[in-house]
Amino acid sequence: MDHFRIHGGIPLHGTVTIGGAKNAALPMLSACVLTPQRCVLHGVPRLHDVDTMLKLLTHVGVQWERNGNGGATVNAQAEKIAASEAPYTIVKTMRASSMILGPLLARTGHARVSLPGGCAIGARPMDQHLKAFKEMGAEITIEEGNIAARADRLRGVEITFDMVTVTGTENVMMAAVLAEGQTILNNAAREPEVVALAEMLSQMGARVVGAGTARITIDGVEQLHGTEVTIIPDRIQAGTYLIAAAMTNGDVAVENCPLSHLEALQTKLTEAGARIEKSAPTATPTVRVVGPRKLRSVDITTAPFPGYATDLQAQWMAAMTIADGASAITETIFENRFMHVAELRRMGAEITVDGHTAIVKSVAKLSGAPLMATDLRASASLVLAALAAEGQSDIQRVYHIDRGYERIEEQLYSLGARIERVR
């Protein structure tokens, strides 16, 4: 099984380019099911999670091919739906597979999707999705571990989510574009990936207003047509490199950086002593980050967008282990997202956890150690910690990081890191 071998203590220098966002690509690929016409998506990252979604599209009858530079363009056409189901064998490897439910239900009038199993970082239940579909007139039953949904045609209603849910907002929004009448989503997720999906749906002929706010209005249409779109840059990938540069006393230019999607992180990095320089507005904006000799400790509390992203919490904790002072890191989104703490302690970090808050006290240095990744973002935090540590670290289970970072070891190597993938 692949693992990373990292010799730390080297400041990162150079330029890195950010690719398409996984969390935008997955729902946008699902949206291709809504029309029998061809959809062309540019900037689709080559990641394990994307491969899983493409496997699921093949299962339901979507014809697709990768081409373009490095296969970054996906041409997909769902002329006929062969199977309105997402089996457990696929869903168990990626929870986001469940967002095929809305498009299948809207397109065919029925869908059968395996209930996602447990997740290392928390339960992430689908109750908000199912509540919304029931309110829209769908008959929902649970049969042998599968969600079975049926509706001749969904009808528009006003829905208020009990909590902010990104995949719930996306799933219901995709279903609502073909529903009869108007659907209003209150307490909707405001993430940039939700906005990107809404823009794609609008280009396909949908009538979506308010994406990016807590209230989204969708007026259903009879049918959608194909479109051509470009995936937005990955803000989590960008944020990871920004933190890596800051905590290694580096000097890194991040190209195609969606800084407007990272305002909370930008504020925290500045408070911690990093210098951030923005290029003049261009189609591919560049952000330069220069790390201080030693970061200052800064507290964070995760929150839905535009707050501090939970997907960057573990990386920030890695940086705070060697920052001057003590910091409090509070996780409000997922109940089990401190699983990286034990591994950071193995490197000499001083961290105590009390419920949803971790207190991180500064140590003079981290030491390289054998490490085990437990989930996608935890694996990123271990890579960052290993880059800043003295000595060698070997990180096992890097298949987690391959789910969300395209060739991260090559990108970091280009910035001067001593990192290799050992097979």
Can you describe what's shown?
This protein is an alpha/beta fold. It is built from 14 helices and 24 strands. The strands form 6 sheets. The chain has a 4-stranded mixed β-sheet. Helix 1 runs parallel beside helix 2, helix 1 packs parallel to helix 7 (about 190-205) and helix 8 (about 235-245) runs parallel beside helix 10. The longest helix is centred in the N-terminal third of the chain and has 13 residues, at about 50-60. Mean pLDDT is about 95; it is low at about 120-125.
Descriptors:
423 residues; UDP-n-acetylglucosamine1-carboxyvinyl-transferase, Chain; 14 helices; globular; 2 domains; 4-stranded mixed β-sheet; 24 strands
User: What does the average pLDDT come to?
Assistant: 94
Q: Please, how many helices?
A: 14
Outline the low-pLDDT stretches. 118-124
Tell me the strand percentage band. Answer: 25-35%
- Tell me the distance between the termini: 6 Å
- Tell me the CATH architecture of the largest domain: Alpha-beta prism
Largest sheet: 4 strands, mixed
Estimated radius of gyration = 21 Å
Across the major sheet, the strand order is 22-23-1-24
User: CATH topology of the largest domain, which one?
Assistant: UDP-n-acetylglucosamine1-carboxyvinyl-transferase, Chain
CATH superfamily of the largest domain: Enolpyruvate transferase domain
CATH class of the largest domain: Alpha Beta
How many β-strand stretches? Answer: 24
- What structural class should be given to the helix and strand makeup? alpha/beta
Count of domain modules:
2
The helix fraction, in percent, is 25-40%
Give the CA-based shape.
globular
